[in-house]
């Protein structure tokens, strides 16, 4: 992966690290390294970035790396798309782009999902700010003019720091 040697920078909000994905092959390599981290189970990962940044693309590579086969549906209309990995890991892929109804949070069981076991991935987490717990790891993806992706990883919890250390290793 390009820029893999960049130093880890300590900030008051946690630990951050910057990467560059030159193509989807780099996204895939990153997804595979994340999938191999035991701390990923039960983690909450927030995916930040503009429309078309590459959030869903990353989720698809991560789901494949976790052994999900067949067509991977996007959650845009359902808000959440659940998956189950072959080893039994529950994965919840949220897209809060159209999320606006606070009642839905409890009614649709989102509170229970975030309180329970399994991997939670969320696009547009800012639309559910104040409802989700803090993300263990925030991944911010920016599409650059040359079509590469500038990626900022930010750990907000000990689990997130553990993940970051695994990825960096
Ligand atoms: N690492 C990458 N390198 C090159 N192109 C990429 C990369 N990641 C994603 N893309 C391309 O960017 C486009 C948009 O990606 P994607 O749908 O994943 O964005 P998104 O962040 O989920 O957007 P939205 O906010 O609309 O859900 C796709 O055409 C995809 O092929
Ligand atoms: Mg998307």
A few lines on this structure:
This protein is an alpha/beta fold. 27% of the residues lie in helices and 27% in strands.
Protein model, in words:
- The structure is a single chain.
- The chain is of the alpha/beta class.
- It contains 5 helices and 8 strands.
- The chain has helices at 24-35, 55-65, 102-107, 110-115, 158-168, and strands at residues 9-11, 14-21, 44-48, 80-84, 90-95, 119-123, 137-143, 149-155.
- An 8-stranded mixed beta sheet has the order 1-2-8-7-3-6-5-4.
- β7 and β8 (149-155) form a beta hairpin.
- It is globular and about 40 Å long.
- It starts with 8 loop residues before the first strand and ends with a helix.
- The model has no long low-confidence stretch (mean pLDDT 91).
- It binds adenosine-5'-triphosphate and magnesium ion.
- Residues 21, 23-24, 27, 49, 51-57, 123, 147, 149 line the site of adenosine-5'-triphosphate.
Write a concise keyword list for the protein shown above.
binds adenosine-5'-triphosphate, alpha/beta, binds magnesium ion, 5 helices, about 170 residues
Topology diagram in text:
Blueprint: E1 9-11, E2 14-21, H1 24-35, E3 44-48, H2 55-65, E4 80-84, E5 90-95, H3 102-107, H4 110-115, E6 119-123, E7 137-143, E8 149-155, H5 158-168
Parallel strand pairs: 3-6, 3-7, 5-6
Antiparallel strand pairs: 1-2, 2-8, 4-5, 7-8
Q: What is the gyration radius calculated from CA atoms?
A: 15 Å
Helix content: 25-40%
Which word captures the global form? globular
Largest sheet: 8 strands, mixed
As residue ranges, the low-confidence spans are none
Strand proportion: 25-35%
The pLDDT mean sits at 91
Q: Give the tally of β-strands.
A: 8
User: Please, how many helices?
Assistant: 5
Bound molecules: adenosine-5'-triphosphate, magnesium ion
Structural class: alpha/beta
Query: What topology, given as strand order, has the largest sheet?
Result: 1-2-8-7-3-6-5-4
Order of helices and strands: EEHEHEEHHEEEH
């Amino acid at each position: 992966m390009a820029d893999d040697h960049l130093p880890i920078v300590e900030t008051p909000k946690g630990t951050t690290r910057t990467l560059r994905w030159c193509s989807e092959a780099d996204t895939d390599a990153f997804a595979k390294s994340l999938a191999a981290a035991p701390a990923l189970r039960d983690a909450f990962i927030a995916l930040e970035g503009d429309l078309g940044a590459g959030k869903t693309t990353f989720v698809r590579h991560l789901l494949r790396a976790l052994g999900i086969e067949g067509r991977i549906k996007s959650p845009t209309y359902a808000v959440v798309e659940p998956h189950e990995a072959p080893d039994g890991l529950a994965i919840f892929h949220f897209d809060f782009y159209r999320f606006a109804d606070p009642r839905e949070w409890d009614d649709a069981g989102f509170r229970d999902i975030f309180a329970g076991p399994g991997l939670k991935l969320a696009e547009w987490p800012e639309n559910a700010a104040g409802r989700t717990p803090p993300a263990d790891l925030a991944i911010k993806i920016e599409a650059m003019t040359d079509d590469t992706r500038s990626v900022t990883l930010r750990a907000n919890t000990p689990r997130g720091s553990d993940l970051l250390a695994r990825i960096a290793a």
